[in-house]
Structures are given as structure tokens and as C-alpha cells.
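Budget justification note: compute hours in this period were largely spent on complex prediction jobs such as the one shown. Inputs:
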Amino acid sequence: MVNEKEAAGGLEWRIKVADGSSKTLTPEAGVGSRVLQGLKGLIVGLVMKLWKFLKKSWDLGHKDPRKVIHCFKVGAALTVVSLFYYMKPLYDGVGGNAMWAVMTVVVVFENSVGSTLYKCLNRVFGTFLAGFLAIGVHWIAIQSGEKLGPFIVGFSVFVLASAATFSRFIPSIKARFDYGAMIFILTFSLVSVSGYRVDKLFDMAHQRLSTIIIGTCLCILVSMLIYPIWAGQELYTIITRNMDKLANSLDGCVAEYFNSSGGSTDSNKESNKDSLGYKCVLSSKASEESMANFARWEPAHGRFNFGHPWKQYLKIGASLRSCAYCIEALNGCINSENQAPEYLKKRISNISLKVGSNSSSVVKELANVVKTMKKSSNIDFLVGEMNSAVQEFRNHLKSLPTLFIPQSLHEADQNPENKNTEPTSTGVEAVPLMDIVPLVTLASLLTEIASRIEGVVDAVEELADLAKFKPMPDDKTEANQPTNKVVPDQHKEDETMKTLQRV
Amino acid sequence: MVNEKEAAGGLEWRIKVADGSSKTLTPEAGVGSRVLQGLKGLIVGLVMKLWKFLKKSWDLGHKDPRKVIHCFKVGAALTVVSLFYYMKPLYDGVGGNAMWAVMTVVVVFENSVGSTLYKCLNRVFGTFLAGFLAIGVHWIAIQSGEKLGPFIVGFSVFVLASAATFSRFIPSIKARFDYGAMIFILTFSLVSVSGYRVDKLFDMAHQRLSTIIIGTCLCILVSMLIYPIWAGQELYTIITRNMDKLANSLDGCVAEYFNSSGGSTDSNKESNKDSLGYKCVLSSKASEESMANFARWEPAHGRFNFGHPWKQYLKIGASLRSCAYCIEALNGCINSENQAPEYLKKRISNISLKVGSNSSSVVKELANVVKTMKKSSNIDFLVGEMNSAVQEFRNHLKSLPTLFIPQSLHEADQNPENKNTEPTSTGVEAVPLMDIVPLVTLASLLTEIASRIEGVVDAVEELADLAKFKPMPDDKTEANQPTNKVVPDQHKEDETMKTLQRV
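Corresponding output:
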């Protein structure tokens, strides 16, 4: 490891020089040695910076080796396409246009199969369409004579480039054909102003198109055959990971609130990390959307068919985010300075933990449904459990007012800060409303979270219908809920009725 | 307008054909007329679709005319660069490489000045660096002889392409040099495998670089001189707009809750639209980040210097979002089915509205600070007001427990749904805790929002320091708070003390 002190020393020396100060720490040293020392400091500083950068890069690659593999894939594809220059027959075949194959590989090769396919197809069709149109315009320009021709070409470039640029602003086109529109403009302007004769143009168009097709095929093959990264799989992983994180956060938040006084530091840290997992959910919208856009270009892979309802994952993501907003608010409210006294917290800790764990087990079950791609017959039971826990929490709160005795206005005015009222020995307690504010807020937000989780349930069930998930085998169902002997359908109806009665 | 019925009729007919059904609505019509009708329906359907698409595009352009202007700018830049092909001396000057100027314009011209500059500079420096390196490698390959040469070139392409691709994953490089890294790979592979002699390479490199510089200069000039769209200005607009929306949402949410029974439908709709403005704040992270990335490439423009602290706007954006999360939770909680009775709502409506309006006026004042780019001496006063309103709200809640009389457990069990308890004539009221749950939640969330608004205040004050905002002229301050005779600084100290005492 490089000595950090030395680097700091070098920096200090340079600052002194910049200040124009004549004092030095080592007056006996000559100018030469000082310059040498300064240079040394500078180099050491640079090496330090480089070292840090390399270390960060190494960590990045170590954390996600697929990124490193992707880099090697790009390198390999480029090296292969470069061979065109060295193999005489191939080079002659495409008439020196091999450059376009190299260029295609560089700009088209993306991280995921979906984005590579999106760019490849857009490039091929954009080039084809624009080339076709441009040859037409070129032919008209030539027929119109030498004077009018350039104006026709110029005008058509202006109009089509403007129109294609505008189309890139339209959301539905931007999502699918953004790159194609750019390639369209590029090819159209290149071909229409190239000034070649039409017969030579056909030759050129043929060569250009064939080199582009060679490049795209190579990209598609390499990205699909060597350690493929599927955008659909990525989206699926993000969603299931977010579900797990949300469930852990919910558990963690509630547990942290009620265990804040006890517990070792290590386990606290661990639970703190867990309970902040929802923050990932808050900020994953952009990546979810781009993955869903790319996923629809992908062929069947793994457990996903072509035409898998990827858009539904976005709905699930949105419903997860709406839960995460509430967890964020919950986290803020229960960490505020206004805390409920311990004895009151203890009184509702069991039921709060039950609501929290029931809610999170619904989310975990949903994550399981998506992970196994099998409909769960358990989910209605769990939703019912969650709703009954919420209802129980409410009933518990309803019984709390009996704890209050009227505080006279006089007393309240005189002791507004009298928060630490302890339970008296008479069994009747005076609890200021302020003390139960955090608990009531917790209850309210947990209720809201539970109702939003039902939104997630709906979204996942819609996905299960759209993607035709099969029901989970019965033996697993029974293993999960050994006491529940009701037939799933009847059970579902039963639970729905219960839920309806409760709401 | 095209007749919609006709289109539907055509569709119906086609469905019938697809079903293989022999029944028709018009049995007297022959096969020919049916085919004709079908074709008519098909065409009308297509025209309808096209019409809808065009109408949507027109609306898009009408809503943001700058997009249309951008399209014309791209068209104009491309037409100008195409002239190179028609002007003999210019064309000869760049030796047929004019293609690269066209290509540069197409791929480099972006919507905002910042993104255009980012791509231009990345393109120029990426090309320059890669060309330089590639010529070096090429020279070494030639020196190594015909057998070893291709291996050296292939190996260097593989290594450098892999390394450059990997660098695109490193966040700090991705934010600034993503495009440059791609251009580096492109140029390096094109030059190093091109198979030219080194002296010809220098010629080519010179031409390539000059055409690229011509293209980039044209892009920069057009994007900066004709109706420029500055990324910095956009970011600034997003942030101030989000502040206004957040303030309006806060006002709207609280007002809507307390006015839900009265008011005309029109004003309700209006306030509903206002109160949902915070949803924009929730989803603006991605656009804020990309704007901030581009803004740092921009020169001084309007009221912004080069090196304006754009990153601070991201911090303000993040703090606004953290408020928006709470408003989202608030919106969910107060719209839930569990509602407080009207007479209780009335009792806290004044103070809640006060907290809401005081909080929103802090946000509005902050928006004003950012809009006018002048420090406000009013802000500390407003924050003080907000905190005192929050404290008043708490005191108000503290006085509420005196409203309760103990409910016997028996009674509570028998009438769990007895929510509509009216105030009795004796002056002592029985209010179940469940009835005040929404009010307590409102109080809690408003308190949390107020404390998060202080985070926004900190972020804006940091911006004011970093960007060296000047203090607002005194006359304006006095006009805003005519009753406040305290000197701003003393006043500030005073408020800080008050705040400290309260917290």
C-alpha cells in the first residue's frame, strides 16, 4: 500500500509554493530536492488516485461478474468482425464496406439480449426503409435536371429529418423505434446526398445492407449464445428482489420500533439494513421501465414465452412502490422525536408485530408466486389473515379509550409537558393523547400498507392469469397450512365474505 | 371527422368472416359488394388510426412548441451539412469524407445544448485519443512483420474494447464519458484494422477529425444560437415547478379533507387536480439526474454561470421527493374508509389548515428564493411560523383527551360500530379512539412533512450559499411582513431560539 502521509506532504508543499511563502519545513534542503519531493508527491498522489479507481473497478467487476463477461463478449465480437479485413475473399465480397460491420458491432452490442435485438432490428429496418426512400428521391432529383435536383434533395432531407426527429418525441415510438428513427435519418441523408448514380447506389445499398446484417447477426449470436443476459430475466429479478426487500423492510421497521431499547448492536445494524431495503423499491422505476421495453423484443427464454406479459411487471412494480411510499412515511414517523412511553408500546407490540408479519408474509407469498410461477392457493388465506390482524388491531385500539380518565382542563394547562405519566396503582391510568399519537400513526399506516398490499395481490393475480401460471401442487399447499382443511375455492369465497364483512 | 360507426361496421364484418360464419347482416348483397365493404372498413379503420396518431402528435407539438423547433433545427443543420456535397471546393477539401460530417450531425444533435455539447466533446476527444492510439498500434504491428502483425492488432482491439466497455459500467465515467468510450472503441477498431499504410492513415485521420469538427461546430452553433434549450434551465424549471406543485398539493390535500362535504363539483375537481400534483415530484428523479449531468457541460447562460452548483438541485429534488412520499401516505390515509365524524373534524380544521398553509407557504417562499435567485430574509420567519403552528396543533391535541369519558368495556363490546356519537348536551362527550385515528394520523403526517420541509429549507439555503445568491432587497421584505419590525438578523436569531426551545 502506498504511504498516504507522503502524498499529503507533497500536497502541503505545493500549497506552500502556491502561497508564495518563503518559509520551508526543511530549510537545509536545496531547490532541486524540493522540486524532486514535489514531483514525488504528485506522482504518489496520482498513483493513489489510480489505485483507488482500479480498486473500485475491481469491486464493481467482482460484485457483478456478468459485466466483465459482457466486456469480453464485446471484445470477442469486435475481434471476429475485424477478421473481415484480413480474410481476402470476405473483404472483397463486401467491397471494402467492412467498416460498416465493425461500426454496427460497436454501436449495436448492448448489455442485454433484448436491447441488442432492439438495436439490431431497428438498425436493419431503419437502414432498409431509408435506403429505399432515398433511392426514390434520388431518382426523382435526377429526372428533374441538374438545377432543380439539389433543391428537391435538400427539401426532402429537411422534411424527413424533421419528421423523423419529431417522431422520436412521441412516447409510443420513442419506446420502440427511437434508434430506428435515428438510423433512418442517418441513412436517408447519407444516401440521398451521396451524389452517386442510381445503378451504383443499388450496389452500395446492397453492400451496406449485407455488412450491417453480418454485424447484427454476429451481435445477436454472441449476445444470445455466450452467457446471455436477458432483459426479461433482469426485470423479473428486480421485481422479485423488490418484493423480498419490501417484506423484510416491513418486518424490520415494526420490529425495530418495538425492540429499539433492547437487542445487541450487531443484530440492530442487521435489522436496520433490512428495514431500509424499501429505498431500492422507491428508485427502481427507471430501470424497470427500460427492462420492460427491451424484454418485449426477446424470444422465448428460460421460463418466459415470447409475448410474456412484461407490462404487468411494471404494474406490480408501481403497486410495490406505492407500498414503499407508506413504509417511508412510517419510518419517518416512528423515528421522530415524539415517542410513546415503553409500557404503552408493550401493550400493542404483539398485535403490531402480528400485523407487520402477516402483511410481510403476504408479500413473501406473492414473491413466491412470481418466483415459482405457480398460483398459490394460500394467498387468499394469508390476505384474510392480514385483514383479520388489521381488524384485531383496530378493535384493540377501540378498547384503549377505556384507559383514559378525564384530565381537568386546569391540570392540562398547568402541566403541558407531563408526558411521563406512569401507570398508577389504582389500575386507572391517565394517558395524554400525545403519548399515543405515534402508536395511532403506526396503526393507521400499517392499515394503509395492508390495503396497498391488496393492490399488489391484485397485480400479481392479474399476472398469474395473463401468463397462465399453473396452480401450485396440492401437497405443497397442505404442507404450508396443515390446519386448513377447506377446499381452496370455497375457502377463497369464505375469506372474501369475511373481508367484505370487515371492511 | 370520419364516421366511427362505419369503421366499427367494417370490423364487425371482418370478425364474421374470420369466424367462418355464413350469416350476414345484408343477405341480399353479393360477394363483391361485401369485399368492397370490407376493404372500405379496413381503409376507414386505418385512416382513423392515422388520424388519431396525427392528432396526438399535433397535441404534443402544440403543448411544447420547442420540440417542433428542435425538429426544424435538426432538419436545417442536416440540410446545411449536406451542402458540402454540392460545393465542389469544400467537398474536395475533405476528400470525400464529408459523410462523417453528416453522420456527426445526425448522432450528435440532441434536444438540449448540454447534451449536444456532451456528445460533441466526447466525440471529438474520443476520436482523437483512439486515432492516436490506433496509429501507434498499427505502427508496432507493421514493425512486427506480416505474420505477427494481425495478432497484435487483434489482441489490442480485444483488450482495449473490453476495457473501454467495462469503463462504461463505472458510474462516474458513465455519467460523463459514456458516449466518448463508445466512440473510442469505434474509432480504434476502425483505424487499427483498416489496413492502410501509416502515412495514408495520417491523411485519413486528419480528414476524419476535420469533418467531425465541422459537424460538431455546426451542431453547437445551431443548438446554441437558434432557440436554445438549456439543460440547466430545464433542471431549474423542473425543480421550481415541483416546489410549486408540492406546495399546492399540501394545501389541496388538507383543504380537500376538510371541505369534502361542501363545495361545488367544479372547484372540487380543480382542487383534486392541484392536490395530486405531488405525483409529478415522485417520478421526476430520472429526468432531474440526466438534466444535471448535461447541465455541467453548458457554458454560462441566462442567470447561470459555468460551474453553477447543479448537483445541489438534485439534493433539493431528493428532499422534495421525501416530502412527496409523506403527502402520498397522507393522501392514502385520509382517503381511507375510516373517517372521523364531522364535528371532530371541524374542531381541528382551523389549526390543520393553518399547519398546511404555513408549511406550503414555506415551500412557496423557497420556490420564490430559487426563482428570483435572491436570499429571502422572510424564510426564517416562515419556518418559525410553521413550527409554531405544528406546536399549536400538538397542544390542541393534548387538550383533546379531556373530551373522553371512560367507556365501559361492556358497552364497547356491545356497540363496536357506534361511531356516530353526537356531542351530548352535558358538555362531556364519549368519543371512541377509532374516530380520532384519522385526525391523529393527519397530525402526525403533517408534523413529519413539516420536519421534512426543513430538509428542503436546508438544501435551498446550501444552494443559496454555493451559488452566492444575493439577499432580497429590504423594501420587498417589509412589504411581505409589514408588522414585523425586527431587524432580519436579530429576527433570525430570535426564531432559531424559539425553534430550539420548541423542539
